[in-house]
Amino acid sequence: MAPQLNSPGEYVLIRTKDELERLEMQYNVWQSNIGYLLHPAITQREKLRVADVGTGTGIWLRDLSKMLPENCQLDGFDLFDAMFFKKTPRPTNVSFIQHNLLKPFPAQFTGQYDVVNVRAMVVALSSDEWEPALRNLMSLLRPGGYIQWLDCSAKDFIAKGATEGRVPINAERWTELLRTTANALGKTPNVNALYRIFRENGLEDCSERVYPLDNPVGRDELNRAVLDGIHNFMIAALNGRTFEWAKSADQVMAMKEAAQQDLRNLNCWFSYNVYVVVGRKA
Ligand SMILES: C[S@@+](CC[C@H](N)C(=O)[O-])C[C@H]1O[C@@H](n2cnc3c(N)ncnc32)[C@H](O)[C@@H]1O
């Protein structure tokens, strides 16, 4: 039988201290390539109310709280609070709400936000869940409020820059492992359809920017984030399932070590595109 999700909306990543650190490393690499926390179309002002949905460790809210006036209210939503602000004290204007973004938000939150931010839901949502998720997130916005969604696609992961004449077979196999497994679990959303979905759901002034993660600053961190991220994804994917191409954690670890050797010996690095899509509620 083909592998299946253990539950609808299953989040295929583990929640360990290592994964928490990896998410923050990945966040820093994305930031070093993107350069802003809020898209330039979004006006920063007093008393802004901001939601970060699927907030994870809350690192984006932590950075945003340093940039915005103290009278702004910043709310993090996530299925789990296990990762939220474990390392640093939480600013007084930042709060956490436990909520599944695929379920209707309680009335006290609907129509309340000037900005809704979503980032890296690629292994959280199945391909057919992106549009219902967007509609649900839009319910949080006030008229004139913006949604900003940053994401990537398993289809885009590649190994770049190998020594001339050499093919980084093992590094390529590592990204192929992500693609094939994500595909088997229905987690290969078409990230470049986000912009169209924004427009079809009535958002205005939509824009899409694509950032290839090519900044040499942070290249080592990106390599680590991809090596460990795919590893953590595969460990979660193997929970109660096996795949023709990956039957055990030991096998996955051997593939990871081989990919790591390619990075070292062939001077190559991992890269993928990050899509930043924004739209405004009429
Ligand atoms: C890959 S992490 C990204 C975290 C953060 N946005 C970042 O960029 O570092 C995805 C987060 O989404 C959360 N998540 C997954 N499915 C969710 C759902 N259905 N509703 C709310 N949060 C969800 C996970 O618990 C996790 O914290």
TrEMBL record:
InterPro entries membership: SAM-dependent_MTases_sf (IPR029063)
SUPFAM superfamilies membership: S-adenosyl-L-methionine-dependent methyltransferases
CDD domains for this protein: AdoMet_MTases
Coiled coil: none
PANTHER family (alphabetical): METHYLTRANSFERASE (PTHR43591), RHODANESE DOMAIN-CONTAINING PROTEIN (PTHR43591:SF110)
Record's protein name: Methyltransferase domain-containing protein
Organism for this UniProt entry: Penicillium cosmopolitanum
